[in-house]
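retry 2 of 3: previous attempt timed out while embedding 2-amino-3-ketobutyric acid. Reduced batch size to 1 and resubmitted. Inputs unchanged:
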Amino acid sequence: MELQTERILITGVLGQIGTELSSKLAEMYGKENVFGVSLEDPSRAEGAALGLYQQMDVTNTQALNSFIEEHKITTVYHLASLLSGTSEKNPLMAWKINLDPLLNLLELAKDKKIAKIFWPSSIAVFGRGIPKDNVEQEVPLNPSTVYGISKLAGEKWCEYYHNKYGVDVRSIRYPGLISWKAPAGGGTTDYAVEIFYKAIEDGKYTSFIKEGTAMPMLYMDDAINATLQLMAAPSENLSVRTSYNLGGLSFTPEELAAEIKNIMPEFEITYEPDFRQAIADSWPSSIDDSVAKKDWGLKYEFNITAMTKDMLVNLKKKLASA
Ligand code: AKB
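retry 2 succeeded.
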């Protein structure tokens, strides 16, 4: 196969990560070389930075493979996934959606029909038997959620296809991602996005995660930069072919509320934990990402204060113009 221009497909393109990643990739490679698919109605893709959008269920292997062939796709950012909360409610569907399309793409890469894959894993791969803080890259992985189990299996498949067939698949264990352009959906860390919407709309927020629960989080700008850095790194620099730890920030709901209060003094937070508290309790509080820093130069720009300020400014503007 001759690969000259990078032609990129993003699955789950209208989701929280895909919305921002597609704009960046369009700037880098030209909009005409960035393609997107998701379950959403095409009307939702109006204005997206995409050469072409198609409504598609990525578990439909035939539809996905025909699209890849027809548009001469070279690189796939496979973001379509069910997150932790939704997966807990639909375990078998989560397994199917989170694993089957990944295996199909790994097979395509093995057969040299695509050249490179990015696949998101999660801090959900961690579980019991390890310290809560500064969790290192290589530790025993004992996830207790169906989402974590599916991500752990996916990581091992990525490593297997790389070691056995030389497939160039790269992955990051994302922490909770915070962003204002597209809403989060179905995750345990979503409270840290919802809190901003409610602060602006109602001046108060009831958190489904209780006080004292620290989780690893990251602002979307830093997550997108890290993803692009990893994908641009020379293959020989990458020592991890399961998935790289990404630490970012670590904070509790009350610490985030205090940052919001610094800008909006009238803001109030209350707590009503639900089933997602048990998921949060099974995850680490903070992550050691020194391997990503060493292998491909991971770095961050946003701390919790800068992130809070940026979120409030941009989300206020967005909601005012809606
Ligand atoms: C979730 O909460 O499910 C996700 C994740 C940490 O992978 N944001």
